[in-house]
Write a structure and sequence with these properties.
This protein has about 325 residues and is mainly beta. It contains five helices and 17 strands. The chain has a 17-stranded mixed sheet. A hairpin with a 2-residue loop joins strand 3 and strand 4. Helix 2 runs antiparallel to helix 3. It is elongated, with a radius of gyration of 25 Å.
């Protein structure tokens, strides 16, 4: 059910108001409705055509809203299209791959050079559905597929984010929240369009968990959450010149890696790094990964440094120096 009202003043801007409520709506059908009313269409660059340069407001309440091949449940939204600029007062959803949330923002410039800011919040008691959706949206992404292997480590997701689009240049994302008991913050910047070849990506992540095993699982490792373990912190960054810095902390054990490399969406990490490991007792950390030292239980100190070269088919260690258990 719903209503549609169009006004075309002689000396004013045409307006179209749509109010829809029902069990299921398709975004393409809503766009077609606006087109029939003289407000549809974009040009080949994704910019609103002259016939669309008016005011279009919509309030939609749908049990299910389909956008292409994707279905979103429990949608409540209010939006305004004013001379090609989209103002999203509120887009709330109750079920997007098992998550709920709300998004607000303003976008303009069309699909060819979108600019604007979008802010939102999302919650997911079980995160596997969101990871599956991400894998479906970005097929072949080995990073996402690795995270899905331990999808339960991201349950009880509660996060907020801000996304800034800078025309044909870059998209910037900041996010913070909690997932699987880990508090995290993310800063990322990437080319908005493939044509923006001069814009390189950067990424920064900081995460903390009362137990290091939780972070190890979220990083895609086969770790044992033994309980009562030491607190963990993970810092990881890649800058625009492919400089990579990693710092992982479990109690008093610290692993650092610095170097240059690449982490492609459809491959594995490669590069050359200087690695250092310091620990007054490495045994609790080894147990998390299912390993045990001979005659363990007395404590084994470690202080090691090495150069590591990672390729797609081999790990090569060189210039290994240091001591294990004072040896």
């Amino acid at each position: 059910t719903g209503s549609l009202e169009r006004q075309t003043p002689e000396d004013g801007v045409p307006t179209l108001s749509v109010d829809l409520s029902g069990d299921r709506f398709d975004i393409d059908a809503i766009r077609a409705l606006a087109t029939l009313a003289g407000f549809g269409g974009v040009d080949e660059n994704g910019t609103a055509e002259a016939s669309s340069r008016g005011h279009f407001s919509a309030r939609i309440s749908a049990d299910v809203l389909t956008i292409g091949d994707y279905a979103i449940g429990g949608v409540e939204t209010t939006m305004l299209l004013r001379d090609g600029a989209l103002e999203l007062d509120r887009f709330a959803f109750a079920d997007l791959a098992g998550s709920s949330g709300v998004v607000t923002g303003k976008l303009e410039g069309g699909l060819s050079a979108p600019t604007g800011e979008i802010s939102g919040a999302i919650k997911a008691p079980v995160a596997d559905g969101l990871l599956a959706l991400a894998a479906r949206f970005d097929k072949g992404n080995t990073i996402i597929n690795r995270l899905r292997g331990n999808g339960g480590a991201f349950d009880q997701l509660d996060a907020k984010f801000d996304l800034t689009l800078n025309g044909t240049d870059t998209a910037s994302l900041s996010a913070k929240g909690i997932a699987g008991g880990s508090s995290f913050s993310i800063l990322a910047e990437a080319p908005l369009l493939a044509a923006a070849s001069n814009a390189q990506s950067k990424f920064e992540l900081v995460a903390e968990n009362p137990e290091f095993a939780g972070l190890a699982l979220q990083a895609g490792f086969a770790a044992l959450p033994l309980g009562g373990g030491e607190a963990g912190r993970l810092e990881f960054s890649i800058d625009r010149k492919d400089a990579i810095v990693l710092k992982a902390v479990s109690g008093d054990t610290v692993l650092t890696a610095k170097g240059s490399g690449k982490l492609p969406r459809d491959g594995q990490l490669t590069g050359a790094f200087d690695v250092a490991l310091q620990s007054p007792d490495i045994e609790p950390l080894l147990l998390i990964f299912g390993q045990a030292m001979p005659q363990s239980g007395t404590g084994t100190s470690v202080e090691l440094k090495s150069s590591v070269a990672l390729s797609e088919d081999a790990y090569r260690f060189s210039e290994i120096k240091g001591d294990v258990g004072a040896n």
